[in-house]
Fold this protein.
Amino acid sequence: MCIIIFIIQGDRIQQPVSLLRFIGINPLQNGKKYVTLQLRNNIRMKKTTIDDCKIIQLPKVEDPRGSLTYIYENEHVPFPIRRVFYIYDVPAGKDRGAHAHKECWEFIIAASGALEVHVNDGTRDKTVTLNRPFQGILVPPGIWAHEQEFSAGVLCLVLTSHDYDENDYIRDYDEYLKIMGVNK
């Protein structure tokens, strides 16, 4: 069986795309839901922009013993959490990241210390400073991101929607621009 999905803009049907598999329906914190589909030939239904990179405030529970922050998948972040990694002992002046993902979502937190996250959609960019362990930045697929200006002793925590897959990475910025359809 083959399911054909048509992209509709206004009152016009655009190109048909072939569905490879249905991944799931996921709730967002605001009560809305989004559908995740994997399409053949890496066809994207929506081009992501830096406006899709959101700062998310996480719950903060305070009491005399200290503070606690927790994260639930599909509630605080809009994806099932498949992998967690953290970056630390970054030498002064060094950057991390400098890549985009084809499918993987990331949620980046400065669990301790501070860092800057620079996001770029091929036409616009912005830099966000992370310095609170109860907030992070959501980086959807199709966004070029790199982390910079790490403070001494920083602990950068990253939650992802996918297992590690080198084929999901775009590590060359010129290739990224070409994939995004941006002319230099």
Remarks:
- Residues 47-179 form a domain with the Jelly Rolls fold (CATH 2.60.120.10).
- The helical segments are 173-179.
- The chain has two domains: 1-44, 47-179.
